[in-house]
């Protein structure tokens, strides 16, 4: 692996882990907050009927969470872009074979070498940062979508239990994926702590 390319990839990954990527045009938080507000407007008629009021309140709660997450992310500089620009992508600094190797190391499918350990560690920290910033956003979006779905079923017909089953399945899937990803990341980081530091 070319030392210069590895050093550049590590520099980019460490920057992303500490500061996050640059947002161009719109962040994910802004997009989801906008969607949540639109869904509140779509469920507005539910506010005037006692049997559907709960769905309107659920959509409003989700929109409040989504907008709050967006405002806080702007203040804390933790906005998440839809696409990381190529000049900021750590693995773009490496050739294809090295990108594949590092990807396997990050995924825990290949042993991490002392030379690539700083890059792998920074990539894992960046993943942790991204996950931490995305979860509140998804909670708000899911709440608003639940309100919209519940109101739609109440208005146009359909078994409400089906909505609850679908939402439960989505929530369970997201939880399982988050837990599995966290365990994988923790396992690789623990292995890195046992690795000797690269020679200088």
Radius of gyration: 21 Å
Separation of the first and last Cα atoms:
16 Å
Shape: elongated
How much helix is in the residues? over 70%
Percent in strands? under 5%
What does this structure look like?
This protein has 200 residues and is an all-alpha fold. The chain is 71% helix and 0% strand. The protein has six helices and no strands. It has helices at residues 3-19, 28-42, 53-76, 96-106, 117-156, 160-194. α2 runs parallel beside α5, α3 (53-76) runs antiparallel to α5 (117-156) and α5 (117-156) runs antiparallel to α6.
Key descriptive features of the protein:
mainly alpha, 71% helix, 6 helices, 200 residues, single chain
Give the SSE map:
Blueprint: H1 3-19, H2 28-42, H3 53-76, H4 96-106, H5 117-156, H6 160-194
Helix pairs in contact: 1-5, 2-3, 2-5, 3-5, 5-6
Offer a quick outline of the entry.
The protein is mainly alpha-helical. It is 71% helix and 0% strand. The radius of gyration is 21 Å and the shape is elongated.
